[in-house]
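User: Hi! I have a protein structure encoded as tokens and I'd like to know what sequence might fold into it. I'm fairly new to this, so please keep things simple.
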């Protein structure tokens, strides 16, 4: 009797384990057949899930499915539908990881007196811009807009960090952030006899009476900033395989995602990435990839899953103009921040999407090149667009005053 009980318990345990792994009884074959799990998750929740064009469930839910390929569509009223072909494998969990974006964008003004030459900080948490059209002269100058995520979705108003004057024309100054996003170098009257270089603190108001010209120390300051950037890149690169290090450092440009498990890059040379550069992960992406890379194209390489995806082509960069040594250093640092080869493409804060500007439209696409959706097709100036740090909003620079001479303002577009 005890032996029978032991056999029953053992059999039940085995069946429970097999059931947990996704095995289900098949009436046709009268056996246990392996299934895979589809974790249909989305932001926002409660979206409808269609599998092979049939309404099946709602997010967030997990389904047992026989192995195979399925057309999965996630849809919610007021949002752009998401669709992808997903491969389900036995005993593995495949997640949709769906981010839905509003189909009807709403614009909210962030500035009201204009915003000239907006420049994001290296940490992505601040934007500096100039104002020269305020009702009171003392309000003209440089402002900081904080993009940090705040409780209850409350955003702070722009704060002034310095005012302009006849001697210090900050509105038209060349601005460069320090690598730690703590200071801004303002180059006034660049390449002229009366050129002045001033370091501003972003965290407080900088009174004109306190300004100190750092022109004599400028080569040392810029060299220190460049060394800091080199060290930051080195810390990320040493985690990569030797070949991927060569691809990244030998590229015309490369940029790590906010969570540095992916690289956006433009190769200089044609080559084929070998298979199995990294150990394969269970339930990794099954989307079409391109391991034969060509110069002049933009790719994303996923470091964790060893996948390489084509994103787009990049225009041939313009030839650089002769510059002074200090100006050349400034341009080098700004290029490393902004990556001009990626002028119309940048990482979205969640590291799973890219923001692309094409034909005066702002497109958000997944990092594997799928689900390219236009989230904004209205007017904006200078192709300027930048996401809030939490990804819930997008900033654009736009002039909605028709043919008036008023400067453009920053507007926030809701993306949640």
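Assistant: Happy to help. Inverse folding works backwards from shape to sequence: for each of the 416 positions I chose a residue that suits the local structure. Here it is:
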């Amino acid at each position: 009797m005890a032996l029978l009980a032991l056999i029953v318990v053992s059999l039940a345990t085995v069946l429970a384990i097999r059931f947990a792994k996704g095995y289900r009884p098949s009436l046709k074959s009268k056996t246990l057949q392996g299934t895979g799990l589809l974790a249909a998750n989305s932001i926002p929740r409660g979206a409808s899930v269609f599998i092979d064009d049939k309404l099946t469930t709602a997010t967030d839910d997990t389904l047992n499915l026989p192995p195979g390929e399925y057309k999965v569509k996630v849809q919610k009223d007021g949002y752009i539908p998401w669709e992808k072909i997903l491969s389900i494998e036995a005993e593995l969990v495949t997640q949709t990881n769906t981010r839905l974006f509003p189909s009807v964008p709403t614009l909210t003004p962030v500035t009201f007196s204009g915003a000239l030459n907006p420049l994001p900080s290296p940490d992505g948490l601040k934007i500096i811009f100039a104002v020269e059209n305020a009702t009171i002269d003392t309000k003209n100058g440089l402002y900081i807009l904080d993009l940090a995520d705040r409780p209850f979705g409350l955003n702070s108003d722009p704060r002034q960090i310095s005012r302009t004057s006849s001697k210090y024309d900050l509105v038209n100054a060349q601005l460069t952030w320090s690598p730690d996003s703590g200071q801004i170098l303002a180059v006034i009257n660049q390449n002229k006899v009366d050129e002045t270089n001033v370091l501003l603190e972003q965290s407080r108001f900088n009174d004109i009476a306190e300004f100190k010209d750092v022109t004599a120390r400028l080569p040392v300051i810029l060299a220190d900033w460049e060394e800091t950037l080199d060290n930051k890149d080195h810390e990320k690169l040493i985690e990569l395989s030797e070949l991927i290090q060569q691809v990244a450092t030998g590229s015309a440009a490369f940029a790590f995602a906010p969570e540095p498990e992916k690289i956006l890059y433009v190769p200089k040379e044609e080559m084929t990435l070998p298979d199995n550069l990294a150990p394969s992960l269970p339930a990794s992406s099954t989307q079409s990839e391109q391991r034969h890379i060509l110069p002049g194209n933009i790719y994303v390489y996923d470091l964790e899953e060893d996948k390489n995806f084509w994103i787009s082509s990049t225009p041939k960069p313009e030839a650089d103009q002769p510059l002074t040594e200090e100006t050349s250093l400034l341009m080098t640092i700004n290029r490393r921040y902004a990556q001009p080869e990626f002028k119309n493409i940048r990482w979205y804060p969640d590291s799973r999407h890219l923001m692309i500007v094409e034909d005066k439209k702002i497109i958000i696409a997944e990092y594997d090149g799928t689900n390219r959706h236009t989230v904004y097709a209205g007017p904006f100036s200078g192709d300027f667009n930048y996401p809030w740090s939490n990804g819930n909003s997008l900033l654009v620079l736009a002039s909605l005053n028709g043919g008036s001479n008023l400067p453009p303002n920053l507007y926030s577009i809701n993306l949640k």
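A useful reference point when you look it over: Confidence is low (pLDDT under 50) at residues 8-12, 26-31. Feel free to ask if any position seems puzzling.
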